[in-house]
Each structure stands twice: as C-alpha cells, then as structure tokens.
Specification:
This protein has 499 residues and is α/β, with parallel strands linked by helices. The chain has a domain at 232-289 and 304-339 and 347-360. It has 19 helices and twelve strands. It has helices spanning 28-39, 77-82, 88-92, 103-121, 129-137, 139-154, 165-168, 172-181, 183-209, 227-231, 269-274, 278-288, 325-335, 351-359, 402-409, 412-422, 431-441, 451-454, 484-496; strands at residues 7-11, 44-46, 213-218, 246-250, 260-265, 293-296, 304-309, 319-322, 341-343, 364-367, 390-393, 446-450. It has an eight-stranded parallel sheet with strand order 9-6-3-2-1-12-11-10. Strand 1, helix 1 and strand 2 form a beta-alpha-beta unit.
C-alpha cells in the first residue's frame, strides 16, 4: 500500500446534513459541507455505509438489504430540479423544518418525487445514454436488486424466505414470468438507483476538485433478508430450506455474559474460495467506484469469525472458525493495487488479526475515548502507543461525543488518567478541544474528527447507542454552525500539527 500522507478529516454521515426534505442528502448542503472541509484544510470526509436502510431494522446503515445499492433517501429533490427531472413547483410545498432525521417522512416525500420524475422519463423509456450506460455498467448487481425490491413490494415486504417456492428458489421460468409482468416497476427501481449514482458522482467530482477525498464503510456481513443472499444463496451457510445454518456474532465478554448474536448469515468461505472470491471483488469494485478509501468493519472476522448455530438464542455456544482472509486480500490487492483499506480492529484483537492487518500494511483504528481506562499508559489507543500506519478517531458513531462522555460516562479513573495525560483539568467547555488536538498531534497518519466533537456537542448529538433501538441514526447538525471562524480554527490546529 502506498505511504499515507499526514492528513486529517471529519466524520459526518450524509443523513446528518441539514436538508428541507426529512434527511440529509446529496443536495446543496453536501456541497456546502465539502466547501467547509476545504476551507478548514481537511483532506477526508468519512461517512457511514450509504446502502439502503430498512425501517424494520430501525434504519441502521449497518443492516442493509443490499451490499451494492445506494440509499434512495439520499437523493436530493433540489438536484432533481437542477437536472430537469422535476420542476421547482413540484418540491416547494413539501419542504419541512430541519430537525432530527425523519426516515419515514423522507421516504414518503421522495416516493412522490420519484414517481413524477419516472413518469416524465417513461415515454422515452431507458433511451438516455447515461441511463443505458449505468444499467449496463452496474447490471451485475442492479438486475437482481431491482427484481428483489419489486418482489418484496409484491409480497408485502415479507422475507424472501416466505415467498412462493419457485420465486424463493429463483426458478428461471418463474423469474422470467414475473419480470415480464412487472417490467415497468423494475425499470423504476433502476431509474431511482441511476438518480443516486448520478448525484453521487457529481458530488464526488466536486469534492475531488476541492481536494477532499471520501472515506466509505463496508459492514463485513449482509442481512439475511437481502438481495445479496437471495441472489447468491450458494455463497452463504444455508440449509436445504435456505434458512441459515449458522449466524454471526461475538462471544461473551466482560460487558455481555451472553455475547452478541447478530443473526447475519455467515459466508461459505470454501465456495467463495472456489470462485476466487468473485463476489468480494465485485463488492470492492463497486465501493471503490464511489469512495477513495474504505473502512472495513469488524476486520477481525477476516481472520476468525464467531460461528453460532442458528438454533441458539444467544452467542454463548458459538465457536471460532478460521477464515481465509489472507487469500481474500491477496486477490483483492491483485485486482486493486494499493487497496485503500482502513481495518476496524477495535475491541479484543488477537495476534492473528494483527498479523493479517500487517501482512497487507492496512492501517488500523485507534479511538482516543478508549485510551484512559486502568493502566492507560499501556493502552493501544494512547497516542504514544500507535502503530504505523494507523488512523486515529476522537470517537466513532457507536460512542458518545467527547463532551457527552465527560458529562455522563467518564469514570473517576478515566478522569484522573486523562487529566494526568493532558496535564490540566478537564472542563465541559474545552474537553473536546483537548481530544481534537491530541488526535491531530498524534503520530497517526490520518486523524478523523467527528463533527459532533468539532462543534463541542453533548450526548444529544450521539449517532448511535449500541444495544438500543430507538433514537439512533437521526442526529443532524444545526444549520449555520459551520462558520468561517470554525473552519479557520480547525485549519490552524491541523496546520500546527503538520496536517
């Protein structure tokens, strides 16, 4: 992997941008955020996964029904007007107040906009050069995804495992008949994905011109009720009835006596090896066409994964299973020289995980909020102990904000250790600045600062609280907070740290 430049960036998901249409999107505010990053001297804009979210799964970006598709909620109605798909009058009366992300309202609004735009496109069909090019280029995932979405709609959003057996099992005659009877609905799904792709590539081009690079996120597993598992069941550990035999999770630890049973189907790694990891090559080809660098979630499961019998209600009776991660990444590095991966190696990491990461010179992650427990001087999250290459974060989407940690979560030993390390008392007013400066001044090649910490926000700005289901993934930053003064301050701190 090429040497990483000493640089910095900001973690802010698309959904967290201001917008008048229910959720942050790829419209004007995304361009304003890119301008802010450029003014602030930042190189990286990191996001969470941009795949479609499912209301039944509380809209978690880490539990999507497609590893390849883009989230239609991120399509900007304003950009649709600019591109001629809608008239300004079509969207003006539907603008809503900016507040927490409202996935339901965002979906309802956009469905009406998509239908109107598709009807305008429909008389000519998919005759536009860009539309045809997109369909042909992305057919390897788009065809199955569009069919899956329409089948889900047809059967009341029930799991594909509950569909009539010929469609569940992908009988060629049954699929052909369904496609013939639902061609327009399938075209509509593809049209919506085209809109996402077009808007994304315009934003990415703008960011590139401004000197801002995009960092994406790949969840290692996919949802069972997904286009991916339905389209390629042979690549997963499923039984004859196409139900999972084993599922993913993590073993019991200090924090959870039962461990965590995530429920995602595990990959059939023997079959994937036989196919030279073609599915993973396709997955990385897709995400690297959208991002400049990608964080790989739960990297440790590429060395060994925790395999839980599907009949078990907890993760207690799982076993560790070896995974051919070295073979996989050898293939990926051959396909994509200089594979730009960030390995999420948080939690309890064993030597085999470090060995896999180091074999390919992937930078790992370090999180300052994890640094100040007992015996903190030995913590791998303390700046003095960082490996190279590495990427340091003030916190992640799963943590409280720095100020929220200070006000609600910090233990007395953490306070004592942090004050000893920083050489001054921690205060509500400037604790976030201490963490930001420590991240920027660390030896890590890349420092990523969460926007909530840059703004000095408290617990209400938290993005996600693991093991809870309500109130997550809805934070949006207040409008007009990205001031010239703030960008100048961030630029100066980054410059002083040599970034």
């Amino acid at each position: 992997m090429p040497e990483l430049p000493r640089s910095s960036g900001v973690l802010c998901h698309i959904s967290s941008l201001p917008s008048a249409f229910g959720i942050g999107d790829l419209g004007p505010e995304a361009y304003r955020f890119a301008d802010f990053l450029a003014r602030a001297g930042q190189t990286w804009w990191q996001m969470l996964p941009i795949s479609p979210t499912d209301p039944a799964l509380k809209n978690s970006p880490y539990n999507s029904f497609s590893a390849f598709a883009g989230n239609p909620l991120f399509i900007s109605p304003q950009k649709m007007v600019e591109d001629g798909w809608l008239d300004a009058a079509d969207i003006e009366e539907f603008a809503v107040d900016v507040g927490p992300a409202d996935h339901e309202a965002a979906c309802r609004l956009r469905e009406a906009f998509f239908e109107k735009a598709f009807r305008r496109c429909r008389p000519e069909g998919f005759s536009g050069k860009d539309l045809l090019s997109f369909q042909e280029r992305e057919a390897y995932w788009l065809d199955d995804f569009a069919l899956f979405v329409v089948l889900k709609e047809t059967f009341g959003q029930t799991s594909w495992s509950q569909w009539p057996q010929p469609l569940r099992d992908r009988d060629p005659r049954a699929l052909a008949d369904f496609v013939s009877a639902n061609r327009e609905r399938i075209e509509r799904v593809k049209f919506i994905q085209y809109l996402f792709d077009h808007q994304w590539r315009e934003l990415r081009g703008y960011c590139s011109t401004a000197g801002v690079r995009l960092v994406g996120d790949i969840p290692i597993y996919v949802s069972y009720d997904s286009a991916d598992v339905w389209a390629a069941p042979q690549l997963f550990e499923l039984g004859p009835d196409r139900a999972p035999k084993v599922v993913a999770g993590v073993p019991p630890d200090y924090f959870s006596a039962d461990g965590q049973r995530w429920g995602n189907p595990l990959y059939d790694w023997d079959r994937m090896r036989d196919e030279v990891f073609a599915w993973w090559v396709a997955r990385f080809r897709r995400i690297l066409s959208l991002f400049d660098r990608v964080r790989v979630d739960h990297f440790r499961a590429f060395a060994q994964c925790w395999e839980i019998p599907a009949s078990e209600k907890t993760a207690v009776n799982g076993v560790w299973k070896d995974v051919p991660g070295a073979e996989l990444f050898t293939v990926l590095c051959r396909e994509f020289p200089g594979l730009p991966v960030i390995a999420e190696d948080l939690g309890i990491i064993t030597p085999d995980v470090d060995a896999l990461k180091n074999k390919f010179s992937f930078p790992g992650m370090r999180v300052l909020l994890f640094a100040f427990h007992n015996e903190y001087r030995k913590s791998r999250d303390l700046p003095e102990n960082y490996d190279t290459p590495s990427v340091v974060y003030t916190g992640t989407h799963d943590n409280n904000t720095v100020r929220g940690w200070y006000e609600h979560d910090m233990t007395e030993i953490e306070r004592k250790n942090a004050e000893e390390y920083f050489g001054c008392p921690l205060t509500r007013k400037d604790v976030h600045l201490l963490f930001i400066r420590a991240a920027l001044e660390s030896r890590a090649e890349i420092a990523i600062l969460s926007l909530q910490d840059i703004l000095g926000l408290g617990q209400k700005a938290r993005m996600n609280k693991p093991s809870t289901v309500e109130g997550n993934w809805i934070w949006r930053f207040p409008e007009r907070r990205l001031t010239r003064k703030l960008s100048a301050s961030l630029k100066e701190m980054s410059r002083e740290a040599g970034r």
